[in-house]
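Reading group handout, session on sequence-to-structure problems. Before we discuss, look at one worked example. The prompt was deliberately terse, the way you'd type it at a terminal:

> structure Leucine-rich repeat-containing protein 18

The input record follows.
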Amino acid sequence: MAKGGKGPKGKKITLSVAKKCIKITFDGKKRLDLSKMGITTFPKCILRLSDVDELNLSRNMIRKIPDSISKFQNLRWLDLHSNYIDKLPESIGQMTSLLYLNVSNNRLTTNGLPVELNQLKNIRTVNFGLNHLDRVPAALGALKELHEVGLHDNLLSTIPNSISKLPKLKKLNTKRNPFPKPEEPDTFIDSVKRLDNLYLVEEKDLCGPCLRKCQQAQDKLNKIKSMATAAPRRAIFSSLVSPNSMAKESQEDWR
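And the output record:
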């Protein structure tokens, strides 16, 4: 830590530097790419470039996103992953052109996600993975255009039905959350029918008919055991000859 308890001093982004970071995507959109530049504070100068279609501020050390980010009214793609953000501004709900929002790998809690997220009616993909969410924000259930939702690596114990029932949802990633394990049944259910009681008696105590039945049953059991343990017979095919012998007999015909 620097003197005075402040965090590390990040790289200062000027307007001229930001302009040089604008790229044209394959589909002709303007992307402002300021990723991996050691930025610690949201650079206010980029608000003068609010006509860009995509903004990438990922892999920096940004802690706070200002309300003024809503000036990017044309923005369709916003990537803020891998920063130190613990809260999103309410004004993000005004960015109704957004199709893609990635805020994974930050320090977001459920309370740090504003209700105004439910105003992003056109958004297709959101990624809240690798944060500290203990419940899914109710706002997500109102986003009927969502195709992909990332909620992996959080503190979630349940997923509300409003998420799984989103009409256009194709992918829902909820891996590595502390969901409760399904409860095991208290009693073991045995599907095999068994005798309630078994009585052992000596031969001398049996009547004649009962003794004969027991002996017949024992004879059948012994016969089955002997058949099962007998070695299988080897099949004999006397009419077949080995390939080598046939070839040997016809060698003279091929010469």
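Points for discussion. First: The longest helix spans residues 208-229. Second: Residues 1-5, 186-199, 236-255 have pLDDT under 50 and may be disordered.
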